[in-house]
Amino acid sequence: xxxxxxxxxGENVLIYDFTNLYGCDIGDNTKVxxxxxxxxxSRVGKxxxxxSHSFICEGVFIEDGVFIGHGVMFTNDKYPKSCTNxxxxxxxxxxxxxxxxxxxxxxxGSGSTILPGITIxxxxxxxxxxxxxxxxxxxxxxxxxxxT
Amino acid sequence: xxxxxxxxxGENVLIYDFTNLYGCDIGDNTKVxxxxxxxxxSRVGKxxxxxSHSFICEGVFIEDGVFIGHGVMFTNDKYPKSCTNxxxxxxxxxxxxxxxxxxxxxxxGSGSTILPGITIxxxxxxxxxxxxxxxxxxxxxxxxxxxT
Amino acid sequence: xxxxxxxxxGENVLIYDFTNLYGCDIGDNTKVxxxxxxxxxSRVGKxxxxxSHSFICEGVFIEDGVFIGHGVMFTNDKYPKSCTNxxxxxxxxxxxxxxxxxxxxxxxGSGSTILPGITIxxxxxxxxxxxxxxxxxxxxxxxxxxxT
Lengths: 148, 148, 148
Prior knowledge:
- 3 copies of one chain form a homotrimer.
- By secondary structure, the first copy, chain A, is an all-beta fold.
- Chain A has a single domain (1-77, 94-148), classed as UDP N-Acetylglucosamine Acyltransferase, domain 1 (3 Solenoid).
- Chain A is 0% helix and 30% strand.
- Chain A has no helices and 20 strands.
- Chain A has strands at 3-5, 8-9, 14-15, 20-22, 25-26, 31-32, 37-38, 43-44, 49-50, 55-56, 60-62, 67-68, 73-74, 100-102, 107-108, 113-114, 119-120, 125-126, 131-132, 141-142.
- Chain A has a 7-stranded parallel beta sheet with strand order 3-6-9-12-15-18-20, with no helix packed on it.
- The N and C termini of chain A lie far apart (39 Å).
- Chains in contact: A-B, A-C, B-C.
- Chains A and B meet through loops of A and loops of B.
């Protein structure tokens, strides 16, 4: 009851049921909870916990030892649209992918939303329920909407 | 690994795995991501993207070309309760359904919650992580909790 | 298409598909929506509605007649980390479980995040999209981030 397509897994990776992973790279000992989707073109390091109900999109790079809480939504497009101005379905070439970096040992609280194109520093902490709109310095704690 | 009951689908609709749709109407070319539930008595137009982890409830009417981000929660009841005051399980007749309208070309950012009984105007944009408590004018951008 | 392990169910419990429940206790007549995870060491009372996309973790105790909206995230650890300071994967003994109590007849709006170690009082209401950081008195309504 899990769906893995073209996924590169390290050793001792634990992936729960009801998960949808494709084209991504997951490091040793990392755990991925139920109802998680991880898209192509993303990377999760070693010794991470990706908790249930979270979404990790293309262009998100998560280093080792990171905690991602439950229901955390990453993004990679600042102006997402379903269609272009002339009413055609938007294609990959119609938008700009913004990359997001989560550095070693960071912790992102449950229910947070992470705007695209930012870096969350080493051992930084994002409190639960936050909306992170800009980069977070290493070893600092932010929370709120917007997170400060 | 998807569950579709009494669903009316247009042409070229793409529905991912781990989805639960019932009694709803989905227009041509629309894509529905993993871990999405769409309830009876709702409608999604043509050329829409309904991203993973979102919940579209009864009474939500989404026009053509709308983008719904990941983990967006719609609502249809201002005062949801499990039981009535005398301790009985609430029935359909114990509450009032408030309808929500998402107009053509609107974009709702990931991680947003949409309060019931509002209209989000044509080409309006709701920033990621917002809580939308009142109607949004066409061609405007709102964000925050509450979104303004 | 549901996964139930070591679950104690009352009478007339209704559990939708795409659910992951283990080591928990669910009372009579309670309904559990799609894409819900309920962990070991938690309890849900009678006549509750646990709506789709919600996460109920260890140490959460929900009394009778409670409404939990869609996409509600509970937590049980104030300082979640994937690894300890010396880079080892965190074990159960490396953190302190904080218990959360949701009293009879309370209603938690969709898209809310509940910080750990608090009590939400009898018939209290938490508005949709809230981040609840401290206990809520009985018969009161709170909302916002942080909820007040």
